[in-house]
Amino acid sequence: MKELTLTKTLTAAGCNAQMELPLQNLVRDIIDAATAHANHLGIGYDRLMTDGNAWVLSRLAIEMTRYPRVGEEYALTTWIEDFNRHFSARNFEITGAGGKVIGFARSIWIAINIASRRPADLASIADLADSVSLRSCPIEPQGKLRFGGDEDSCTPYTVAVSDIDSNRHLTTARYVELAANCVGLDMYDRRFPARFEIAFTKECRYGDTLQVCSRMNDGCVLDVAIKGADSTDSCLCRIRFDERT
Amino acid sequence: MKELTLTKTLTAAGCNAQMELPLQNLVRDIIDAATAHANHLGIGYDRLMTDGNAWVLSRLAIEMTRYPRVGEEYALTTWIEDFNRHFSARNFEITGAGGKVIGFARSIWIAINIASRRPADLASIADLADSVSLRSCPIEPQGKLRFGGDEDSCTPYTVAVSDIDSNRHLTTARYVELAANCVGLDMYDRRFPARFEIAFTKECRYGDTLQVCSRMNDGCVLDVAIKGADSTDSCLCRIRFDERT
């Protein structure tokens, strides 16, 4: 199956102040769709773990023309664009009510060895050549994220129990929340995150005290650097906020 | 339909460090099941809003013998135990793989007028007498939560964008996280939240600085008081941690 579609309905408890799907929950849905498709192709968590390996999300770029609204049925379709024995490039199309396309995403996943934290070699797993889809993903690949100059402000954050995932690292969704929270609620009332990019470099653990540093460029492009306990970058994000129409 | 069942599968991205459903996500599922059933009975958000009213969760008690595990299909069945024109008492049964019962929950919902924030009178909505189910819920009703003596510690928390729900208040799931984070990851490795109770008294808003105050009793019963911007209690929680077997 070259494509997998995950269909969801946005519940009242799942929406944000603007009564839309929050960015961090879209990211969680994207990871769920990726996981389900990898399982289906026989390259999921269980298969990789038999060799002591796991997929780690390295980079993600999302572009949305709007977000799903409360009560709306939406769907994520995912497919593999490219792969080799170390990584896979997986894309997504997001549709809203009536199947109308409302966004796309591109992601890069790296296979690592759990024990050594070094890149894994997936040469032994099933050949994926038949699984590549030629479906197009009409958004820009992610560029190299660079923090544009000095940060405007840094806020400390200590990693809590509810932030920890099954690998005992800070969850991806929480990274996205920490970045999204660098601007106020009034920004989200006026604008929405039209393009979001994130690149991970180093994992954070329970109890680490991070620095969440941000800088707003041109009033609508937010750069965020989340620095780990040793002050090196753990992840870099960029969010472009477009005006609501 | 006197009962509604919501079936889910715990994904890798949805589980915690113990590879189980986190308490806050169980609470979100409970709210989703309640919302879906209320909509089905014609007493949901849309119907209440035509009179300017809304349901507000007032109290919740949960008892679990264990939590759903990664990859496990679990289900929540909800029914109304009691109601009058001001409130409804709604219960839940939680089952895991093979339909085995793993927990129950009791909740109290109050209808309020959105503009006045005062109790609403639901006399005009559909008669619910036919909707009451006699199914039993074999857990203790929630007692009056009292904070047992002086708190051990208080930590400030400022309400962020990602904490805000569609009513522009702190989300229920985030209250649960703030309480659950008062103990360390090692506690969750040794024990699990076997009984959880929460009672809400006052809403918190974006930007409020709260105090999260906690006290551990007998090494396994955690009391938490979350105090709002004016230092009065916004909610009280109690979590009893049982040993894992």
Give a description of the structure.
2 copies of one chain form a homodimer. By secondary structure, the first copy, chain A, is α+β, with helices and mostly antiparallel strands. Helix content of chain A is 16%, strand content 39%. Chain A is built from 4 helices and 10 strands, in the order βααβββββααββββ. In chain A, a hairpin with a 3-residue loop joins strand 8 and strand 9 (221-227). At the A-B interface, helix 1 and helix 3 of A face helix 1 and helix 3 of B.
What would the keywords be for this entry?
homodimer; 245 residues; alpha+beta; ten-stranded antiparallel sheet; 16% helix
Q: So what's the oligomer here?
A: homodimer
Helix content estimate of chain A: 10-25%
Largest sheet of chain A: 10 strands, antiparallel
H-E string of chain A: EHHEEEEEHHEEEE
Mean pLDDT, all residues of chain A:
93
Proportion of beta-strand residues of chain A: 35-45%
Can you tell me the residue ranges of chain A where pLDDT is under 50 for at least 5 consecutive residues?
none
